[in-house]
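Homework help board

Subject: predicted structure for assignment chain

Our instructor gave us this sequence and asked us to write out the predicted structure in token form, then describe one feature. I got the tokens but I'm not sure how to describe them. Can anyone check?
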Amino acid sequence: MEISKTEKYTLIKPSENSVINFLENFKNKYANFTEEHLIIDFSDKINTKIEELLLFLDLSVRHKENGTSFVMICNGIDIDEIPEEISVAPTFNEAIDIIEMDAIERDLGF
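My token output:
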């Protein structure tokens, strides 16, 4: 797993061969990221399936309850098939936009 941090977010790119292996490694290190806005970048992973993204539902909900953003970058996913509790963006720039919109919503009390 490749981790790069900025003042606004932490970007995590899986280096594992499968989403399930990444998820296990991520869960083991999750305590290090609870106060950070997270972007999980699956854009280099070919054929990430909706079922695999749904494995992150509990983490996404828990993370957002802490007042932080949790966004996954994934190409080729029909956003309409994803529950609204999971934020998915097709590009890095759109993931940044989601983090900024989340911040505005938090400031407005949503």
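Reply (TA_rk): Your tokens look well-formed. For the description, you could write something like this. The mean pLDDT is 89. That's the kind of observation they're looking for.
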